[in-house]
Amino acid sequence: MIGRAGTTHLWVLIEHPGPWPASAPDDVLPVALTEKIYAAQGRIRLVVIRRTRNRRVLTPTCVLAWTDGTRQWMREGSVDRYEDLSVLPFESMAAGVEPDFGRSRTEPLFAVCTHGKKDACCAELGRPVVSALDVAGIADVWECSHIGGDRFAANMIAWPAAVYFSRLDGDSATDAVEKYLNGELAVTHLRGRAALSQAAQAAEHAVRRATDIVATDALESITESVDGERTTVDLRLEERDFRVVVRPGPPGQPFRHDCGSGGTVEWSGWTVEHLLEQPH
C-alpha cells in the first residue's frame, strides 16, 4: 500500500448527511457545482463528509484544504445552499491561493471512508474505526465518501498535511490520530502524502523507515526526475538531505478482506533501488 495515495493538492470537503449512492459526491450535490469543480485546472478532489449521528444539516459545512507537501492552508465555512459554493475560485485555490472564505482553520481534521455503496469493505471496516475514534473523543472526525484504495480499507486522511493512513482498525486508528495530534506520523500505517507523486510518496516513506524520522512537518523540500521506469527523488527532512531512486516493483502480497464478494486483491508496490544521505 506504500506510495499508493492519489495525488491531490486541493481538497473540497462538503458536508452532506446522505444517504450516499455509489456515485457520490455526484448525484447528491448540484450538477452546476460538481461540473465547475471537475472543469477547474489543477489537482482537486471533491469529497462529501458527514457526522456519524447528524442526518439533518441546515447549513452545510465546507472545508477547503490545500497543500503541496511543505506548505498548507485550510479554510472552513458554512453555506445556506450548496449552489453558493459555485462562486469559489477553484483554479486559483488549486494553485495555492488562499481564498476569502469562512475562517482560517488550524485544528486537524480526520476523515474515514465509510462509503458502503461504493465498496462494502469501506463501510464494514470504516465504521468501527469511526466508532472507536468517537469513543476516544480526541479529535474532529468525520465520515467521508470514496477517497481511493478500497483494497486498503479502512482508510483515513488527516489534514492539513493530507496524509493517508490505511489498513486501520479501531486501535491503530486511535494511535495514528494521537500521534498526528502530537505532530508525528504512524509510519506503519502510512500510505502516502497525497500532495506528492506516488514515487515521491514511496521515497519519503523509505527515508522515514530508514531514519526513524516521524515528525509530520519534517519534510522541507522535495524534487524528482524521471528516467524511464526509475524516479530519482531528492528530499530534505529535518535539515538532512537524501537521494532515493525508486521504480515500480512486483505486485504486493495478495490478500482477501473478510467483507465483500470479490476475490483476492493485488496491487503493484515500489522497489527502492538506492537510498543515500547526501553530505552538506
How does the SSE layout of this entry go?
Elements: E1 10-15, H1 31-39, E2 44-50, E3 61-67, E4 72-78, H2 90-94, E5 103-104, E6 109-113, H3 120-136, E7 140-144, E8 156-159, E9 163-165, H4 170-181, E10 190-193, H5 198-211, E11 219-227, E12 230-237, E13 240-251, E14 268-278
Parallel strand pairs: 1-2, 6-7
Antiparallel strand pairs: 1-3, 2-7, 3-4, 4-5, 6-8, 8-9, 9-10, 11-12, 12-13, 13-14
Structural overview:
This protein is 20% helix and 32% strand. With 280 residues, it is α+β, with helices and mostly antiparallel strands. The strands form two sheets. A ten-stranded mixed sheet has the order 5-4-3-1-2-7-6-8-9-10. Strand 8 (156-159) and strand 9 form a beta hairpin. Helix 3 crosses helix 4 (170-181).
